[in-house]
Amino acid sequence: MSPVLHFYVRPSGHEGAASGHTRRKLQGKLPELQGVETELCYNVNWTAEALPSAEETKKLMWLFGCPLLLDDVARESWLLPDSNDLLLEVGPRLNFSTPTSTNIVSVCRATGLGPVDRVETTRRYRLSVWL
């Protein structure tokens, strides 16, 4: 079975506005909610027998990152939940390949990353609550 690699993208400036909007909407239903943080996760199906080399990993991180921000992509999540936090991940069904995945795979193949055969993007939410 092919490993699924995860690349986490740190929220940029416009993400803060989206988190604030999400928090306001959720607080109507969950008054204990204190904060919402988000990140994107690129879930990469890697079909090669060996894990990606340092050069291949660097290419993937460059493809998923913002050209104006340095170090905005990591292999570990930026969201570190506390014991009172809830971590949610929202994305497409695993049995359905999205058009976005098809486009990303085409770009990966054009850059020499042939072992990439699917990339699905999910949004992760860390909900901080008072108990």
TrEMBL record:
GO biological process, one term: purine nucleotide biosynthetic process
Keywords: ATP-binding, Ligase, Nucleotide-binding, Purine biosynthesis
Entry GO MF terms: ATP binding; ligase activity
Coiled coil regions in record: none
Domain Phosphoribosylformylglycinamidine synthase N-terminal: 81-128
Highest rank taxon of the organism: Eukaryota
InterPro entries: FGAR-AT_N, PurS-like_sf
UniProt key word ATP-binding: yes
Short name of one Pfam family: FGAR-AT_N
UniProt protein name: Phosphoribosylformylglycinamidine synthase
Organism annotation: Gorilla gorilla gorilla (Western lowland gorilla)
